[in-house]
Amino acid sequence: MAFRNIYIENPARLSIKNRQLVISQESDYTIPVSDIQSIVIDNLQTTLTAPTISFLAENQVA
Predict the structure, then answer these.
(1) What average pLDDT score do residues 31-35 get?
(2) Which of the residues 9, 25, 26, 31 has the least number of beta carbons within 10 Å of its own beta carbon?
(3) Quick check: pTM over 0.70?
(4) What span, in angstroms and rounded, lies between the C-alpha atoms of 34 and 4?
(5) What pLDDT is recorded for position 13?
């Protein structure tokens, strides 16, 4: 059951590895995609890979 709402306000790179969202900033943070309900990106310098967008959509992340 998804319960996390992720808020990105600093430049970051979002990618997927082993069914987990990887948030790369000064260090890497991983969050299981099955736990994520929504992601809010409030920074124009944030990068998302195409497979990340696709995988998040398949797992109904808003």
Answers:
(1) 95
(2) 26
(3) yes
(4) 9
(5) 97
